[in-house]
Amino acid sequence: MSNPIITIYDASTNSQFNREMTDEEHAQYLDEIKNVTPLAVSNE
Amino acid sequence: MPTPPTFSVGQYNTAAYMNSIGLWKVGSATAVYGTTTQLNISNIFTSDYRAYKIVISSLRYANANTTLSLQLLNAGTPANTASYDFAYRGLGSDGTVRDTNGFGGTSLSDLGCFNTTSNDYQAQVSFEVINPSLAVVTTFINMAASGFAAYPFTRHGAARHSVASAYDGIRLFPSAGGSFGAEVVVYGYRN
Question: Would you give the end-to-end CA distance of chain A in angstroms?
Answer without folding.
Answer: 35
